[in-house]
Amino acid sequence: MLPSFDDLLLKKLLISNKISTPQQVDECLEIIGNDGQEKSLGEILLEKGYINEAQLKFAESLRVDKPDSEDSKENTID
Fold this sequence. Notes:
mainly alpha
């Protein structure tokens, strides 16, 4: 299974904001590709302990197309 557009966007946001390393993200994307995982990149990164919930929410809040971006301004990284 190929990574979704959302997963690829999250990859870019996590790496560019130094929340996760390229190696960690690529490892999790490889799991999605090899195992046919139904989980998202964010879920796998959380399970592996590479990021925490606050970091994931912060990265997701940076998406410009997210409809609830008004609420996302309150998110911070722990």
